[in-house]
Amino acid sequence: MKRLLGFLITVLLLAPCAVQAADHDAQEVVMRGWAEYVAAQRQWHQTVNAFVVARRPDLKAVSEVSRELQIAYLDVQASRFVYLLEHHPERIALNRGADVFSSFTWGREDEAALRAGSSEYLALVKEVRRLREIYKYQKGMPAYRQYLRDVTESNEYRQALAKLAAQREAITLSLRQFLSDRMFAGSGTAGVN
Question: Which of 114, 122, 135, 178 has a C-alpha 20 to 30 A away from that of 20?
Fold first, then answer.
C-alpha cells in the first residue's frame, strides 16, 4: 500500500500542469488507470490460454507455462515502472496514455539499482528465468507457436484482441482527459490533447 501511495504521489508530479499531491481526484484517476491496465493485460493472457486449451488440449502444458511467463514479465515490468516513478519520474510521460505503463526506457543503471534495493524484484527476475527455461524446453513448442500463428486469423481471437485494444484506448483517453482538464482548468477551455 505504501508503495502504491508513493507511486500515485510521484505520478501526480509528472502531469504537464500544476497538480497538488493531496489531489484525491488525480490519485483516483492514476490508480484506476494502472489497475485497469494490469487487469486488462492479465485478462488477455488468461484469454489466450483458455482459447488455446479449449481448442488444443494437447497444448495445455505449454500454453499454461506461456501464460505464467507472460504474467511474470508483467510483474517485472510493473516493478520497473514503480521504480522509475519513485526515482526518475521525469522519465515517465503520462501524456502517452496506456503506453506509459509498458513502454519506457530502462537502462543498466536502473536494473542494478532495483536489483540492489529490492529482494522482491530479484525473486520476480528469478521466476522469469525459471519459467523461460521451462517454456523453452516444453514438448509441443513448435506446434504451440504454429497454432498461435494460425489462430490469429479466427474471429474469436480478433474479438479478444479488439477488446484488449479498446481497454487500452479507454485508459489512454482517461489519462489524456485528466491531463487536459488539469492543463486547461480555469481557462474555460477543456479538451483532449
Answer: 114
